[in-house]
Design goal:
By secondary structure, the chain is of the alpha+beta class. The chain has 4 helices and 13 strands.
Length: about 200
């Protein structure tokens, strides 16, 4: 599809909006600047370790709206119940201007088939061959993206973090938990990024 037609399709439903014109000393029509409408809606990102969970809310322009963290157990239904309660409570307190929830991304400690959203194996959740994405989409009535938590952390570093200027790197993730006056080591994971994309391997592990 030609760019003007594509922009027109995005402009009419207010997905993108005009934010000005590019300054230029040349003769002719000035380039129009466009931006994603941040009030189109919002998404939630959810990740967890053995005993803690982390929630981040973002608008459609990628701006962080709020963050939350809380203790959890290892029962999947209880985790989803708590997540649903927190997301519902947060959204009900917000101005209607932020729009509706358009999706949720979840990072799972374990082996995840990112193409169909199934958990192949998660020792923390004691799950195997579990249709997790479908469960989340039914619960929240929105689109869900499920991936290994370390893969998602590596993608974040690639986009806005320490690896933002790298096409090829390995990200290492150390998982620890508070224990008395110190911390207890739990696990180590890694994610490979090749040519700017996550390399998942033949079996997503």
């Amino acid at each position: 599809m030609e760019t003007p037609r594509l922009i027109g399709k995005l402009h009419d439903p207010d997905v993108v909006r005009t934010v000005g014109k590019r300054e230029s000393k040349t003769v002719g029509k000035k380039q129009i600047l466009l931006d994603i409408n941040p009030n189109l809606g919002w998404v939630a990102g959810f990740g967890f370790s053995t005993d803690w969970a982390f929630l981040t809310y973002l608008d459609m322009a990628g701006n962080v709206l709020d963050e939350d963290q809380f203790e959890i157990g290892t029962d999947l239904q209880e985790i989803l119940d708590t997540l649903n309660e927190r997301v519902t409570a947060w959204s009900s307190e917000q101005d209607a201007q932020i729009g509706k929830m358009l999706g949720i991304g979840i990072g799972i400690p374990g082996v995840v088939n990112v193409d169909n959203g199934r958990i192949k194996l998660s020792s923390i959740l004691k799950l195997q061959k579990h249709p997790f994405r479908g469960l989340v989409e039914d619960r929240f009535q929105t689109l869900a993206h499920v991936d290994n938590n370390v893969n998602l952390a590596a993608q974040a570093e690639s986009r806005v973090g320490a690896a933002s200027d790298l096409n090829n790197f390995i990200y290492f993730h150390l998982s620890v938990s508070a224990s008395g006056d110190g911390y207890t080591f739990q696990s180590i994971g890694s994610s490979h990024c090749l040519d700017g994309k996550p390399y998942r391997g033949a079996h997503y592990s």
